[in-house]
User: Which sequence fits this backbone?
């Protein structure tokens, strides 16, 4: 994981190369801050734990309230799945875990630090998940979201997720990884409709 994010880059003219990851890792959030999104493939560290210390537990009991249980949960996510983190000013401000890593239709969870919400970071992380999932040859992404999170539901629907099942507490949503969605999220910055 990179420890420094340059605050002077502008990737809006970038046309990408064959060496680029499935989606450009550099992003300027809606507050004008540079954010780097990359694979998280290290043991659970203090930066990830610190982000989750600030995240409130949802009605679906995630992340776990108890610090020891939260650490066990994160260890399971990082050992059984693949993960992405968003960093800003050398701190993890967002995290996505996709589990199990070898499933054709894995589930994922996504969280953004409360101080960095409403800045487009969650949407950017979500588009990274779609790009990386297609690159890893998953067929579909699935998630559960609490009914009391209409803003999150709207973001998922905007990306292309559809409700597949409902109950009193939450919605199950899925996104088949097919055209044109996967092509759109993998475009280099200069080609994106922003």
Assistant:
């Amino acid at each position: 994981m990179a420890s420094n994010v340059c605050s002077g880059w502008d990737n809006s003219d970038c046309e990408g190369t064959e060496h680029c990851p499935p989606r450009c890792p550099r992003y300027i959030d809606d507050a004008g801050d540079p954010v780097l999104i990359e694979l998280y493939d290290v043991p659970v560290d203090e930066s990830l734990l610190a982000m989750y210390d600030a995240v409130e537990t949802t009605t679906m009991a995630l992340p776990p309230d108890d610090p020891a249980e939260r650490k066990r949960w994160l260890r399971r996510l990082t050992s059984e799945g693949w993960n992405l983190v968003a960093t800003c000013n050398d701190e993890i401000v967002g995290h996505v875990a996709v589990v199990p890593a070898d499933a054709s239709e894995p589930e994922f969870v996504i969280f953004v630090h409360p101080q960095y919400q409403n800045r487009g970071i969650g949407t950017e992380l979500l588009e990274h998940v779609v790009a990386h999932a297609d690159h890893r040859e998953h067929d579909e992404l699935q998630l559960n979201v609490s009914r009391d999170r209409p803003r999150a539901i709207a973001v998922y629907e905007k990306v292309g997720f559809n409700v597949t099942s409902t109950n009193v507490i939450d919605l199950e949503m899925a996104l088949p990884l097919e055209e044109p969605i996967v092509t759109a999220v993998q475009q280099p910055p200069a080609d994106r409709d922003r």
About this structure: The two ends are 27 Å apart (CA to CA). The helical segments are 46-54, 67-80, 121-135, 150-159, 181-185. The first helix runs from residue 46 to 54.
